[in-house]
Amino acid sequence: MRKTNKPIPVNYLEDNFNSGITIERMSLHDMPIFDIVAEAHRHDRHSFFLLENGTMTIEIDFQRHRLKRSSLLYMHPDQVHRILAFKDVVVSSWAITNEYLHPEHLKLLEKLTPGGPLPLRKETFSLFYQAVTLFLQFSEQPQDSVYQSLLKDSCNALIALTISQYLKRAKTTDHPTRAETVTQAFRELLDHHYTADKRPAAYARQLNLSVPYLNECVRNTTGFSVSHHIQQRVVLEAKRLLYHSDKSVKEIASWLGYDDYPYFIRLFTKVAGMPPLSFRHKNLD
């Protein structure tokens, strides 16, 4: 059942000595799933997982993913997720708050979202395993005079390695096209302004571009129009609120910036394939 006492639960991960950084290796062998991970939630920081053994099924923003051994996963703090099942799992996880991330890494992670699971080649998995093991060893030396620096630098190095693998999958180059640059700038604006700005013209104006040119760039890069991306982002947040809160559909529409309640119903139905209340009832269990 969905949680009712707060809109979207946030798990605050325990730091290694108040460092804003967490690192651990866990073994889970067909154990009952803990409530804290079975309940849909967000993390308070950027989270990374290396599945070293076993299988795991996880739901991220209503998309189900099955991870196998030698898989890598990055999750942004905005992403709502829950563990559905696991078997014979050994997993290493590390997490970091924004203030301890290198600024360039933070920019790249924003571009990678949503990342999704990433299978690793044998030699790449071995490299990650060694890096995580070394990071774990550093984390067990709190008496070291440069402990905080060791944690921060080790975590950022591991994150850089993670980013490099996602960028390889995306075939991202050091010299993105003009259309790719414009599309990324639009996506960043959209994440911050989707509740206030629903029209392509608002984003084109902020980017000092014409609406036709913005649409051309976004469509050439993603295959979809600016309006499509705006609607998808709004409906994703509506789904989160429908599932994780007791807000009425009318309250959700208002929170998302829609004064015209019937229009919001029609928009949600068109994008999600069902009315808001049908979505809520379908996902109660």
From TrEMBL:
Domain of life per record: Bacteria
Residues covered by the HTH araC/xylS-type domain: 184-282
Annotated PROSITE patterns: HTH_ARAC_FAMILY_2 (PS01124)
Keywords, alphabetical: DNA-binding, Transcription, Transcription regulation
SMART domains with a match to the protein in the record: HTH_ARAC (SM00342)
PANTHER family named in the record: ARAC-FAMILY TRANSCRIPTIONAL REGULATOR (PTHR43280), TRANSCRIPTIONAL REGULATORY PROTEIN (PTHR43280:SF32)
Protein name: AraC family transcriptional regulator
